[in-house]
Amino acid sequence: MHEMNRAANTLPARRAVWFRALAATAFLLAFVPAARAQDDAELEGVNKENYNIKQSFEFGGRFTSFSGAESIYDTFVNLQQGPRLLGYSVEMRSLDHHGELFDRLYLSGFGYGGDPNEASRLRVSKNKWYNFDVTLRHDVNTWDYSLMANPLNPTAGFVNANQGSYVGPPGFGPLATSTCTSCVLTNSPHLFNTRRELSDYSLLLLPESRVRFRLGYSRNIVAGPEMTTYHLGTEQALFEDAKTTVNTYRLGVDYRVLPRTNISYDEIWNDYKGDTGTTDQNQMFGLSNGQLVDLGVSFNATANQPCASTFTPPTGPTGYVNPACSALLNYLSHGRVRTSTPTEQLSMQSNYWKKVDISGRFGYTAGDADVFNYIENYAGRASNNLSNAFTNGSVFGERVSATGDLGLTWHVTDAFSFLDSFHYSDFHNPMQYDYSDCSFFSTNLITPSNVFTPGSPLPVTCLAPSGPANSAAGSVAGTPNHTTSSAPDLAIDMNGGFLKQQEFSNLSELDYQFTKRLGVRVGFRYRRRDIADNSFAYNMEYYFPSNANRGDCKFTPPAAPPAGCTVIGSGASAYDMFVTPEIVYSPGETLIHEYSGLFGLWARPINAWRISFDAEVMGADNVFTRISPRQAKEFRVRSTYKPVSWFHLSGSIRIWEGGDDLTGVDSHQHDWSYGISAVFDVNEKVALDFSYDYNNVYSQIEICYPSTPAPTGINKCPNVTGLIEQLSIYQNNSNYGGFDLMWKPIRHLTTHLGGNFTGTSGSILILNPNQEPGPLNSKWLSPTGGLDYAFSKNWMGKAYWNYYGYHEDAAAVPQDIYAPRNFRGNTVTLSARYAF
Amino acid sequence: MSKTANHGIPRFRWILVACLLASGLVASLLYGQEKAPAAAPDASSDYVGAEVCKTCHEDMPSKGFYKTYEDSPHYVTMLDTKKGPEWHGCEACHGPGKAHVEGGGDKTKIFTFKDASAKDISDRCLKCHQYGQEHANFSRSVHLQNNVSCVDCHSPHHPKQAEFLMREKQPQLCYGCHIEIKQQFSRTFHHRVNEGLVRCTDCHNPHGGFLTHQLRASAAEDTVCFKCHSDKAGPFVYEHEVVKIEGCVACHMPHGSSNPRLLKRSQVNILCLECHSLTLDLGAPSVPSFHNQTVKYQACTMCHTSIHGSNTNQYFFKP
To answer: In terms of Cα–Cα distance, which of A37, A310, A335 is closest to A159?
Structure first.
């Protein structure tokens, strides 16, 4: 498996780190004078020239230690140690409101120096002339949760006999009975370590004039190494060098055409570039010819994975990879994805008529999507003797969408209003993939492919593999070694897909305010969706000997070839050509009507107490997926109580239930949440914030799946032969508690204590005996504590401790032993903050 | 189906944009600011001007109270010389102050936000702030329908966050009511809202919108998720239809989940089997008989890696 860089953390180093952190904290507290620092809200700033300037910056460092699963710590927390610019802010305000370049400036940021999340936000404005907003974000996304996409290899070993002559790379053998302690994957086969750079710029010119102009630009870059798997015989482990870039440009104009009426036009261009390449860098096991191969990630000797007799070749020394195995010698794929989607958007807003508010938006997108110069080169062995494949192709198509929204509020009286929202959208994506594929065949990994030369030229010239002569990556002239199920030797294909959805929805509501303390509304929503998909395939295929009468040209002489199939030549050099006689389209359509009733009520019995209640009940005559509910209802209650300025209590209840009683589906789901939160902001010396939430998720649905051996007492699936049917039940209960206590025991010292604690329990239908609940039975604890010490009016020292603890209840399966996911991490952050 | 070789912006769009910009510039030069009848406070007017308000409210109800207005962006109303007094200063929000002054500070003679309904409050703010796509739908928003007004989130006089005059920073402001959302973002796999990288307003428009849950949309009116997760947007030759039809939330919990990749289920195969179990009249193909669930294939995405869509393989084996 490809290794990725992580920060080094040895045990002695962590202890030294802790000592230095404690010593630094003690120094800060003991040797600086006491004074009271100002809160940000109190900062007066300094007046310089025509500006009042407030500024703060916090710099320091993190000291980190952890035990347990480093990969899981990096996935969840990823705080490494080192110096940091933890935060900064600048606020500038012109004193006479006539600044030269700007009147207001807000700039803030955090996380610079090595934190996984970094962001800066800028807002600059000059009265009547412009508003300029910038957001820059940098995100390090490390993912290595080992259970994800894991084949759950057992520990049962691969037994090799006659080990004495084994000379090969490390791994299996040369023991008489090798144990497979490394069979269990300790990393996710789909791990990644990518960086995302997000930048957004927005400029509004003449914000208060009748005509305003808007310019915007956004850029989104994702880059970094990833691992993936590819199913070709077995699941090969591939390396991806991810690189995607999105540029979005926006030009807009607003025109106040009438009093209280505004029309806007926007032109938006979205350009997507995908340049991710994929290679195989996981060749870890040896063939007897000295070549290395990638056997993939699934190792299960009992189930003959990756193949039967993996390390016991039929001939030659054992311990080497059986050349009849499916394996990769090398792999490369790349294509330049380019998608350009310009959008025209017209929007309006008006309350020209005092009793009517109207807003609308209409947009049209017609974009092109292409993949240029797609190539895929494969060398190895897959099923049906495939040893080499070279694919060249391109993709082209469109994304076309039209959307329209119209909203109206008619204030019939001061208390009674009629509201209506209409939505229309229509998108369709016709796409086509044209490619040619040259395939070569060999009986095993150490035998070169035989290359057939047809008597007449073909539309595409297939270059013979040029690898070593004692390898499947090489080639010699001869009759290819096909099985009766081998793929065509040459395929020139056109495959198309089409997806479309047209949607109408309308929501009408009546809103009545009895008093300024009580209001109610009722509504009805109708939604119609028309979903269509289609596909076609046009194939031109060439089947060389041996077994030329295969695939789409499968027939046994003297019977006639199938429609579209032509035998070219005769005797031993005859080959078959197939051309799709008639393009067959595969349309599908789904029409769905949904009806929803809505009810809402809000009340404010006294100024300090507010309650709101919302309910929605939905029914549909059809669904697009089995998990989509045909009936659903949702109820939400929220309440806040603030009797005095220093106490705030709030609570919420959300109940969602849905299901589909269709025979064979039997779906029932619910999601219940109950939460309460209290804030005691007594004075500047004490404050407490506490919250608790309970969440209960339940789902049941009939599923059909293959299982060998089939569990006893389970029914057969009524619609598909060979499968069994079982009620799949998923339950997830989550308890969340959090608190934050601030206490200022003496004038210059502020202490903080808090944390977030989440306990999750539940169950799920387990199909594979090596599976385990994993995160479904887990605890996630992150308490925190800290000190703020004001050693002058502008300077403050800070020392914070954060603990991160993740624990999954073990189910005594190999994953818990060889790929444990529990960890404990401590982070101490020491910083100094300067503000004025 | 045509194959477009040119990936540049079509020429007619450039011409159209240029014409619009030019006409806009001409219009702004000709018309400039909205003309309103000039109405400085005079003896017969019900408006008294901000300087009169200052005589009492310089340090009342709290020390430096008037200065909070002077230092705020709303002071820009005092710089206007074309509109009437109803657009200037304190009275632009609180209404005419003459009766309040003559009543010796009678609170019933002036508009106070404390006792007003959400609708009345919002009408005042929207008098200036309604223009633009950000606020155009507030009158139909779920917030206003539940009696949540502008001043429940914004504080013109005492903002805790100067930018946009917010009472509290995100996400704590939103958590004050949306308690159940706080626990979702505190789960192990979550969008980084608590870390400050993502804001609630990146995905939701608190002022309302045309979509349910007040969600924003991408530039091409696609789901907002594709703004950051652009590689999942496609279009693809082989679509995983549910992504485009039902949306990302068919499989993912967008705020946070205890399950990896913010999935709705802790095991990928169970999530897939819930749809891919053949039922009459429902289109998702069933699992083939050779996908023995007891031995392997516990994670469908081990093989079906490009599960959001593929351009080269109908089984989503590769991108």
So the answer is: A310
